[in-house]
Structures
1.
Amino acid sequence: MDTQTEIIVRLSAFAGVLLAMTLWELSSPRRKLAAGKGGRWTSNLLLVAINTVAARLIIPVTAVAAALTAESGGWGLLHQVAWPYWLEVTLAVIALDLVIYFQHVLFHAVPALWRLHKVHHADLDVDVTTGIRFHTLEILLSALLKLAAVVAFGAPALAVVLFEVILNATSMFNHSNVKMPEKVDRLLRWIVVTPDMHRIHHSIIRRETDSNFGFNLPWWDRLLGTYRSDPQEGHERMTLGITDYREEDDVERLHHMLLIPFRRAKQATTARRSETENEPQG
């Protein structure tokens, strides 16, 4: 698969899922929004554009190009075996998803990385655009990690494209403010991270923030002890975001969002229990 085809596939999937989840949110919202869509959506989507351009300019090698280079050089674990192609693709997608799970945990555990990741968690609402709202430096670090993982695993190019498309689509899906029957959600969250499952991760209560790290596959949280089934306050009453940034201007204006990692955290304007503090310890 060449770079042009990869771009077309990824852009088409992005636009299709964004449109589908937007229509679902409008027709059947799960929660009443704390802030309007206009400013948030404009800034979140502009941030995606900036991140895309920055990644292309600063990291000229795409993950697909890295996969093709690894294949030609025989690098990586999967190039040392002769397993069926479908199995190698499946294993590579699962392995890359596990890498993203650990990356997510790391961005919560390491204070310097958490400052970058705050941009994602500072959103006062969680909807489809929250799933693509990440600081540019976090996107660049993530891209470098994925390049290393692709080469180390020897992931086939098809697996890389599938993984990128699935990760982007499920991130928008599980951040969406959509309502679905509880029975459907409980069944579906055995195979994919659902909106009700991931929304808990955006709770202002720290022990809930540090749970449900998965973006695509829900198995890692269950296997590694980071799964939480329900929020303490319930989905309708739970407060989203972080204590450091509660003003709309702080989290909706693009230049404010980009400066969050470099600004001194504000004190919460209202008294909150110590368990809600969102600064990593240690």
2.
Amino acid sequence: MGKGRLEAFSDGVIAIIITIMVLELKVPHGIDLAALQPLIPVFLAYVLSFIYVGIYWNNHHHTFHAVQKVSGGVLWANLHLLFWLSLFPVITDWIGESHLAAWPTALYGFVLFMAAVAYFILIQALIRSEGRDSTLAKAIGRDIKGKVSAVIYLAGVVLAFVAPWISAVLYTAAAALWLIPDRRIARVLES
């Protein structure tokens, strides 16, 4: 089956996720700059989550440029990814409101980890659908960046109970790792 509807649906869900996240930002109570201070942790959590959602949207977009068709398994794997991404607004609000308390910070990392697992499952379903010699399979290769990210998320989950700020630094570092353009798919498509 064609991939257009899956891409359109995913784009719509991701747009809704971003909309919900921004709606969770509250108006400051006051009229001076000091009124913004209590909102800084919430805003920083929003920025990090917005970057993560953007990274997933960008990678999803590039991934589907490298495939020709989707299967029923791919549809379900994509829904699995969207499920974990749909939790970003809630976990983002919680970590921001809690000012990096241990449990919200750990669960933020858990949601990041599960989204990474879901993306891995989606990639594997696409490769099964397209074949081991497909453009996508060649582009993904060993996916070192994906594996390193998963380890960072798990370390952040554990360290949230020791020093939550270290977890926040790890989650930010993993996002920075993905902000460096990933040219694997573009390179394979160009060749």
3.
Amino acid sequence: MNLHFRAEGKGKTIVLIHGLFGSADNLGLLARELKLHYQVISVDLRNHGLSPHSDLFSYQDLAQDIIDTLDHLTIDQFDVVGHSMGGKVAMTLSALAPQRVNHLIILDMAPIAYKGHRHQNVFTGLREVNHHAITKRNEAEQYLARYINDPGVRQFLLKSLVKTETGYQWRFNVEGLITNYATIMGWQPASQPFIGKTLFIKGQLSDYIEPQYRDAIMTQFPNAKAHVVANTGHWLHAEKPDTVNRIINQFLNQ
């Protein structure tokens, strides 16, 4: 799997991993600051962005893709930042290559299996768009609005809608993500804990990291530290990029 990626800056390597429905651009506000001091590798995960599609979509697959990309670039040691689903990819990466990960930074995600279906309305909206011949972006937003009330979520999704010779299409693999949704929400702990430097950054208003998850976090990441960003939700890095960048830089310098 040859992932699409963007490399910026010089210095020690830090890998940025986006979440579900995202792309390399989603952590761009972090990359803009980090590239002043690091070589920043921003990846499109498989089934997202400009990377290839595949029916195989386990966290082991996603993490191995990144290892293969770094091997191709002859990068041995690196730091990693993962948001949401990308956080689980980053955690899996630390299990597959623990000696290569210097700092592990997880943005608003816990190493647990989440219950319920958090994205049913999103998938329904994406499928609704696919059922129509879209010639204008605002047509797609109108179909999404039937199921997705939040205009911010609609605009986020529309970043992955691109014009082709046959009309507008989603860059991410809608049906592949639906098929693998249980895997995306699930979690299989590694056989050995990751004892490296680890930081979990939580959005105060988000429910992705809750107090009852502390035992699971500390069992799998015994040296983990935590930081809460006040008055932010799941998209903390977009809501308060300066704050999140400051927290990340302080941790990287430890």
4.
Amino acid sequence: MSALLNYKREGQGTPVVLIHGLFGDLNNLGVLARELKQDHDVISVDLRNHGRSFHSNDHDYALMASDIITLLEDLNVERPIIIGHSMGGKVAMKLCDFDYPIEKLVVMDMSPVKYTIRRHDNVLAGLNAVCQQTPKTRVDAMAVMSEHIEIEGVRQFLGKSLYNAGEHMEWRFNLKGLEKNYWNILDWQPISKTDTPVLFLKGADSDYLQVDHQAQVQQQFAQVKVHIVANTGHWLHAEKPNEVLRAIRKFI
């Protein structure tokens, strides 16, 4: 698949690429883009099967990283700073396996490890229920999701990917393709050890980035910094944007 990813480009300066997580789109890291575009060339992307980018039956980290490089080469972007959250953090790390020079990496609440716990079964149930019940309005779709997804913040996040397809509401992301590739999304093939400097930002209350991942981090990255953002979960940039931005700015 050689189609270019959908993207938004703002500002001038050193290039910064923002990569969202699962079921997200390029607006998810908007709180970072709005601030960083004041003095950087900020490129926010929709990953394959998300937002307004192309849909594909294939979805893994090597493919997603390759998509990003194809876009950056098309835009003549050199030595970017890459910032990724969650699944996007794994895409960011996988870029180091390609012959493409990266200035620095910021990985938000994600480890370079294989996860074995399915965390999204209730989310998938809610998303599929919307497809099956074909609600005609956003309010109805949100009500359908609430039968499966307890946390309102999660429903609100997912709801941003709803759109009116004419007769009923549909998802912009490729739900079938993502569900089919769910174990690929949890998976990880270790990268060759890289000298690219990386900052891991961890939400203190999140369990995605754990102490026992330290050995695997050090096997893959020679230059590592870790910053823990207190009183935040997996969505640290939404919960404490100012602290996250301070940590990113200090690092870059």
